[in-house]
Amino acid sequence: MSNFKVIFGIDKDEVKKNCVLLPLLTKNILNNFSGLEFLRGKLYACAQEKNFTVIHTGLGPTLLGDAVLYLADTQAENVILFGSCGLVKETDDLSIASLVVPRKAFNKESFSHTLLEDDCSSKASYPDKGLLEKLAQIKNCGIKKVDCATVGSLKLEEERIEDFVEKRIEVVDMECSAFFNACRYIKRRAAALLYVTDILKVRPFYKKLDTKIKSTLSSSINHGVNILCKLIETLD
Fold first, then answer.
1. Is the distance from CB of 134 to CB of 234 less than 8 angstroms?
2. If DSSP codes are grouped into helix, strand and coil, which group holds residue 229?
3. Using CA atoms, how far apart are residues 189 and 18, in angstroms rounded to an integer?
4. What DSSP element (H or E) covers 92?
């Protein structure tokens, strides 16, 4: 058995041209794909849709970044991150369940960097411009381009809100900058589609959502899956 199959649960030749990476795999997400059956490896789990491979990476920049690096030995060309993010400040067009596409992600995924560097305007990483535009232009998608900060601490992100607002950073996550950097390193096209699950301090991640908001978020995730499927159809 190859090292790749031990780690991913499938052979590297089975990875398709288009890949969707999921840091978090919930029943809600799983139910919105068409009956995926995951094969689990030592670190990751993979499933196949008709024209793309779905990879559950686990949370955090290290697991996700390494998953991308392993894709260098596969036929993967277009890699899309579908994950969650927190909203810095609620606006008329951004709230819980909003779908967003980061046009840049500031590199603060290190815990030490987040802890010791107060200024969030560190070096930024970027998606593939062509793939970003294709994603943003899906008809009736209702998604907004945003600036993102990838941070290394859920606690400290609440303490950096004023800095985020000053730098016009709209969302925070824990994987996006690592994802963009890893894809650029292996010369693959990358874009991210994120769904907002919380609002810093106002409706934080550790507070239970009410039934109505949970239903809205579920519908948004379903819409996000449909957008991904439409996007990938344009790439074949």
1. yes
2. helix
3. 10
4. none
